[in-house]
Write a structure and sequence with these properties.
single chain, about 375 residues, mainly alpha, 10 helices, about 0% strand, binds coenzyme A
Length: about 375
Amino acid sequence: MNIDLDEFVKEWSELSNEYKNLEATNTSYLDSLENLELLQEQCTTQIKHQRYRMQQISKNIKQCIHNKRLTPEENDKLDDLNKNLLKRKAQLHEIEQGLPQKNSLYLNIILGNVNVSILNRSDKVRYKDDYEKFKLILNVIGLLMSFLNIIVNYRALELAFIFLLVWYYCTLTIRESILKVNGSRIKGWWRLHHFISTASAGVLLVWPQGEPWQLFRTQFMLFNVYISLVQYLQFGYQKGVLYRLKALGERHNMDITIEGFHSWMWRGLSFLIPFLFIGYIFQAYNAWTLYKLSRHIDATWQIPVLSILFLVLFIGNTTTTMLVIPQKLRGRIKERYRLMSLSWAMKARQNKTTKQSGSNNECDKEK
Ligand code: COA
């Protein structure tokens, strides 16, 4: 075979020229990155400054109200100021969503020093959507397995189900920590609830077989069937909230207003809450059954521990859910500004993307 080396040399020199282009692009990319980090730092400092000054203004307002009787005109001014402060808080929160945040200690321990901030609003929504879907799929599997465990009393199947619970709740704690870093307002209790559930599932896993377990087994599986069904209802609610939040940011969906969002949310909550409370009563009943079983002659340490854990879950869940409604009623104005800033931010980003793709299209046409 006749090999033409010159041809290869020519190809190599062509490729080298292309590599020079790549180097130039990479240099400009690194410059942009450096610039980006600088801008991020500047934004963070300016947000801190805004918050500090807002704190001072709020403090001065409080002192002023305390020391002086206000005229109706001054009262109006004060109302405006308070509204503006709330609005600015929501705007700052929204700006912060585009900036990298520090990991929590838990994430640092589990994942190491890697940043999990998602800087794009639609990617954040997608991640949350993914989290809800993950819960749904695992709940369907959980529902099938607990149902099967009611029909068949087979130790390996039982252990597989309990092991799935350990893994599921453990994964939830990680995902929720990532959501929290990315600005989710998930309450501390729900995260703690999933830590406690991981611990409970771990204790269940090492509960030795015997009469007490057999006496509790069916009740536990029925409880899981019920919880899986309630989780399905919760999924419907959270999915609806997410859909409406997305719609708030879409330009052509002006019919779905903030008021519409609120009225839908209240309807969803009033449907869901009775089912949640039945679940909590079930948890209290589990705690009571386990308490009685702890007096059984074959009782092991797992039984009183589980009884306490179920009781803690019952108290924590009931209190938190009961506080949600008054909190939502009190925070209506705050929530309104949050939604307005969110809608504003999503629209601004969408307009930018549309403009960018428009100019790209024009460039393509010119080419
Ligand atoms: N698990 C995970 N995340 C939750 C949550 C839960 N149980 N409850 C609320 N959140 C999240 C919301 O999705 C929202 O996230 P975002 O900031 O990323 O958008 C944030 O926390 C704030 O939610 P909030 O406005 O306080 O409540 P909500 O209207 O979304 O939901 C309830 C209110 C009562 C429906 C909800 O808290 C719930 O389902 N609680 C019951 C959970 C439970 O009891 N589970 C055990 C079943 S027996």
